[in-house]
Amino acid sequence: MKQQRLVLIGNGMAGVNVIEQILKHNKEMYHITIIGNEPHPNYNRIMLSYVLEGSKTIDDIVLNDHSWYKDNQIDLQTGTAVTHIDTEAKKVYTDNGSVFSYDKAIIATGSQPFVLPIPGVDKQGVIGFRDIQDCNQMMEAAKTCKKAAVIGGGLLGLEAAKGLVHLGMEATVVHLGNVLMERQLDDIAANMLKEELERQGIRFAMEKQTVELLGDERVTGLRFADGSVLEVDFVVMAVGIVPNTSVAKASNMEVARGIVVNDLLQTSAPDVYAVGECTQHRGLCYGLVAPLFEQGAILAKHLCEIETKGYEGSVVSTKLKISGVDVFSAGEFQDQADMTIVRMQDDWKKIYKKILIRDNKIVGGILFGDVSESARLQKLVNTQTEMTDEVYASIMGGGACCGGGNQAALVAEMSDEEIICGCNGVTKGSIVTAIKEQGCSTVDEIKSCTGAARSCGGCKPMVEQVLQYVLGDHFDINANKQGICGCTTLSRDEIVAQIQEMGLTTIKEVMYVLAWKNPEGCSKCRPALNYYLGMIHPTTYQDEKASRFVNERLNANINKDGTYTVVPRMYGGVTTAEDLKKIADVAVKYDVKMVKMTGGQRIDLVGVQKEDLPKVWAELDMPSGYAYAKALRTVKTCVGSRFCRFGTVDSIGMGIALEKKFERLDMPAKFKMAVNGCPRNCAESCTKDIGIVGNDGGWEIYVGGNGGIKARVADLLCKVKNDEELIEICGAVIQYYRETGKYLERTSEWVERMGLEMIHQNVVEDVENRQQLFARIELALAQVQDPWQKVLQDQETRTKLFEPIKVESLS
Ligand SMILES: Cc1cc2nc3c(=O)[nH]c(=O)nc-3n(C[C@H](O)[C@H](O)[C@H](O)COP(=O)(O)OP(=O)(O)OC[C@H]3O[C@@H](n4cnc5c(N)ncnc54)[C@H](O)[C@@H]3O)c2cc1C
Ligand SMILES: NC(=O)c1ccc[n+]([C@@H]2O[C@H](COP(=O)([O-])OP(=O)(O)OC[C@H]3O[C@@H](n4cnc5c(N)ncnc54)[C@H](O)[C@@H]3O)[C@@H](O)[C@H]2O)c1
Ligand code: SF4
Ligand code: FES
């Protein structure tokens, strides 16, 4: 049979998903041309929020690279905009003069950001957030701009604001109404959300109508209807979207808000279909991916001449993609007179759950703080399931309901066409096929085979349920589990729990009792176990030097030429003429190759021979700077109130006090601090594990900053009024990190994993818990001793570790 020519206009998520499905149904039926005006191959637009937030790169979000088009003999035209279609001659015209004939055409041109019709929107520094180019522009702007306004407190605006805060900008969300995400949340959930986002550093200007963007060429501020002004140097417009209908309009097709389509996604022109955000179906335009995939599944079948029932519309659900903030909303969300509402609000744990019931059928729901049942709630809303005691118990918690059994029943009832992974449009049927025909037996295998669970991860519990449903007893939920290394399938938390519960005291014992595959362990698990055991048993554990990395064994940093670097401590970055003299004398005497200032305000003696290390340390007679250790490295300070005219507090004094207090203690990874005398932040608190800034007569405490390979701006944890509280909270944060961090996990990752809220709850709000953490860190600190003092007093260690091996001459 002769191949028909299929032209897809728009190389985005909805259109390419249709093509993927057509290729699955019938690879031979069409010769396919895809015309897209972006310069990139198809990518996952929803992941742009993660790119901005820094947890993904552009490469990570490409869905189909150029080889996919080539392998499927698809003619891809990038950077090409379609101008119009001659629907009688069946030709597609583009802005570069090329023309493509078709038998069938699909318009999938998506939407564009709505731009407020106010003066100044065309100034430099004002953008929407829709594509890779916008994302790149925001990342570039963050290098020079300081203050951003995000107009619009919907899903996009909030995700953009969080991304900008991550990039180091001060971001204010300017919102028209008095509640955020008013299309998905009721007042209670919206207020909880706002509080949480404020804690994460986002600022809000609520009930503000922007009437003008100020500035000459470049934006300098926003003027509001009430006359007030917000000074900014960058603006992101996130006030909604408008379907891209220009191609359809120029081709005389029926267009309302979107391109009008029927249940088979047919437009008013013969053989021209439309799918995705550009469409209007039964009066509705959608702005989320799940409905677009549902439309796509139907269109692909129809184009492959497979019988299908038409598209009847979708019940939408949303999940905000901001780490540490769990919000989910599905279906209806505002109380109505004809509804019964089930509501649970826990202000202490910051959890809110609401189920909306009409005629005893579940028609909507909101989850905040605990979204573990989101997939289930979504399904209940989609199928308008009857409310029962069991459903109540499983969603609201506290009941003995066996969620698993019900989940299984839910999965069994789902049709093959139902979408399990909303982000990637993966149906139950595709997952079942991947299990039955491609032998997938773990979530990871399903992920790489079908794409399910590869974006927000919200569908993972449902994917597990499908695996359980198809494989029955053969499904091993633990098969997905990644142990801390190849020697075990146990996670960090499981190992720590077992050490505590079973009272395990040595590395060997842990490996034996917990059935390590490799009885000797490996270079990954041995140092980790050494750390966990030391952290759990601070007074009794005998540190196993042999299980530490070489730098820590020798208390010095090894260089690539086999020499070592010596870094003496300089508390708070302050030194004395006497110490400088000693450093100079040692450098001359031991022929040190380089004397270098470090970024942490101290001095590196680079290029010391191994055998000279004990002598160098003895002559320096200064404390070790721990530059080799997974422990507190430096506390960087600014001049502060002692000399600086802006200084509001004694940052040097506090820096020295903190460094003396918390030095030498083992932590999961290296740890850096900084103390600043005012918000000018000369000592860069924002990139430190704990950063402290003097402000308003007190201190601000920031956590989770990192200036290294994966830069992250620290989050404001809290503000305190006095020095004692500051030291206690810092101690509690460090101990909480020591007790819950994974070995080698920096606080930047730890804060993301735990969530700022959880850390705040444990070290700030719960005063009793904070004091207990502080008591435990005091106990651990009481055991530490300068390692070089120990070595200098121990001739056996000196000989074993540092003296050259003498080779006896045989002659
Ligand atoms: C930052 C961000 C985060 C999001 N997060 C989520 C989320 O978490 N969950 C969710 O469900 N949804 C989310 N969305 C919405 C989701 O991305 C869209 O619903 C989805 O991408 C729409 O798919 P589409 O194919 O209809 O449009 P698009 O993906 O926009 O694709 C349309 C393509 O057509 C091209 N085009 C337009 N006109 C022409 C022309 N004349 N000629 C050629 N090409 C043209 C466009 O450049 C574009 O590449 C997010 C959107 C953004 C911007
Ligand atoms: N996690 C997700 O699911 C996700 C993430 C990002 C984007 N999206 C989708 O992308 C699309 C665009 O998102 P969006 O947030 O721009 O759209 P939206 O329509 O959901 O929200 C726009 C917000 O801007 C506010 N607003 C309108 N005019 C304003 C004004 N003059 N000043 C201040 N605020 C004003 C509205 O009250 C509304 O809350 C939507 O379809 C959304 O669903 C989804
Ligand atoms: S942070 Fe403030 S107090 Fe410290 S040196 Fe800079 S300007 Fe002075
Ligand atoms: S629903 Fe987001 S990854 Fe599946």
From TrEMBL:
Domain Nitrite/Sulfite reductase ferredoxin-like, first and last residues per copy: 560-621
Pathway(s) it belongs to: Nitrogen metabolism; nitrate reduction (assimilation)
Name of the protein in question: Nitrite reductase
FAD/NAD(P)-binding domain: residues covered: 5-280
Nitrite/sulphite reductase 4Fe-4S domain location: 629-768
Record-listed [4Fe-4S] cluster binding positions: 638, 644, 678, 682
Signal peptide (from-to): none
Keyword Iron: yes
CDD domains listed in its UniProt record: NirB_Fer2_BFD-like_1, NirB_Fer2_BFD-like_2
Keywords: 2Fe-2S, 4Fe-4S, FAD, Flavoprotein, Heme, Iron, Iron-sulfur, Metal-binding, Nitrate assimilation, Oxidoreductase
Organism: Brevibacillus laterosporus LMG 15441
